[in-house]
Design goal:
Elements: E1 21-26, E2 30-35, E3 38-44, E4 58-62, E5 84-91, E6 94-96, E7 101-105, E8 109-113, E9 120-132, E10 135-145, E11 151-164, E12 169-180, E13 186-189, E14 203-207, E15 216-219, E16 222-224, E17 235-241, E18 248-255, E19 265-269, E20 275-279, E21 286-288, E22 293-304, H1 309-321
Antiparallel strand pairs: 1-2, 2-3, 3-4, 5-6, 5-13, 5-14, 7-8, 9-10, 10-11, 11-12, 12-22, 13-21, 14-20, 15-16, 15-17, 17-18, 18-22, 19-20
Amino acid sequence: MANPLDRGAGAGGAEPVAEGLGLLHEDGRSVRATWNGNELFRYVYTPWEPQLESPRPYFHPLRTLGGDLVSVYRPHDHVWHKGISFALSNVGTENFWGGVTCVRDEKEGYKYKQLDNNGAMRHQGLDLLALRDGVLRFDEELLWITQGGEKYITEKRRIGVTAFPELGAWQLTFESTMDNVSDDIIAFGSPGTNGRDNAGYSGLFWRGPRSFSHGQIVTPEGTGGDELMGTRGPWMGFVGRHDGQGTASTLVFRDNADNFCHPTEWFARTGIYAVVCPAPFFSEEYPLASDTSFTLRYDVSIADGPLDQEGCETLVDKAACVDLLAD
């Protein structure tokens, strides 16, 4: 007769190896996901960085199912770059990006200045945290507060995660609903809307590892590099290589068709470092009246190996068919 105390144990009573997607919650600090027992990502919702960096939640580290790291945290050139984060550079007169702010200048067109306007996104609570049927879901409430202490925006953030091992990839779905709780119209913009050409960074921003520099951008029209900055399209992929084994990974960002700016303009770089950002305020400001809101939603697929256009499109089609945020 089997001993009931041996249920689920491995040889000699050892703990069995975890399989599939797993969830770990560091209460008050972060949500971690695992794949077959190994860390897949960490989502820090209570950041500890200084005010200058506009503290906000972020995903780092981010890894492929095979374990390769595809994100960087606080690179020396831009310490406010953090894995994947929702960072907005020009929000009215406020900066929820970090560091200096791009402002208009009569003589030079634009200037960067360090102002006392580095706001913060403060975690208010998790409304949902669950792992069911291979899908990890969590919903977060956030309050955007200016450096001067003004309550500026409330945000409802919904996140879904699942794995497609048959495709060697996993998917992150990110949705943000922003509500203006200030007394004034807030104009959402970017350095691009403040006079700097091809500098529309503001949105869901990914910074890749140093070894991803000089990687390859993949689009529905083909492949390229820095010349694809500011182009429009429904999705964009990035292929980068890793030091050591020389393996490669691919990230594919999909713009949701319901976003007000679809198909989005893209802020993307390959030369000096690896960056992809679907940029809803790349070239035009978006005015948001008091007590009104807008929603942005994106899918990010993270895959082992270098994917070509066809491989990226397979992940895009998969994301379009799977609603990770369905109730």
